[in-house]
Amino acid sequence: xxxxxxxxxxxxxAVEGAMEWIEANYELGVGLxxxxxxGSTVAHSFDLIAExxxxxxxxxxxxxxKELAQRGVKVKELEDFSGQLAFDIDGADEVDPGLNLIxxxxxxxxxxxKVAKRSDKLLIVVDQTKLVDYLxxxxxxxxEVESDLEETARAExxxxxxxxxxxxxxxxxxTDNANLIIDVKLEEKLEEAELEELELEINGIxxxxxxxxxxxxxxxxxxxxxxxxxxxxxxxx
Length: 237
Hints:
237 residues; alpha/beta; four-stranded antiparallel sheet; 6 helices; globular
């Protein structure tokens, strides 16, 4: 499908819509701690976050931490932070009508899920190409696995679809936790009622660290970048 504006503009529109909503609903001053995710869409928020003095950001990846620190944003590791984050702004690879997500295209979903669960609100920014009728429609499910149990985990994951080890330049991709990623192309259309059980079932496989289903902790609001600005999906529109 062709758009009148670039994918980059769609992503920027999503982030600008989210930041407008955030400014209208939070006092962005000293003492506010937030989660900041990973990926090409949420990266458009880094400069805007840096403009707000007094924020403390808990990043979901080493790359996000580096980018925020370079802009002068105070960053803190989740392990060093107690309490709840006000909100978490992050991207997604797929969003279904129930605001359930697939994340992990960048390989950071383990940290992303931990930060999301510690946040009062999960705010997702995506361009309109990420909207799907059901999860797995256009994107495989990323599953982070321990290196020494990759073969065991991959064999079990065949029950759900076609598992492929993620590689780059013929080398296995390593996460920030030095684990591997298996992308599972789901073979069946999953109903929303099945997703939460499946999220838990996959995490119960030996060697699996975390999978990219965000169902138990799905989005509170989704800001969708369109050619005409941002459209908001969720309860507080």
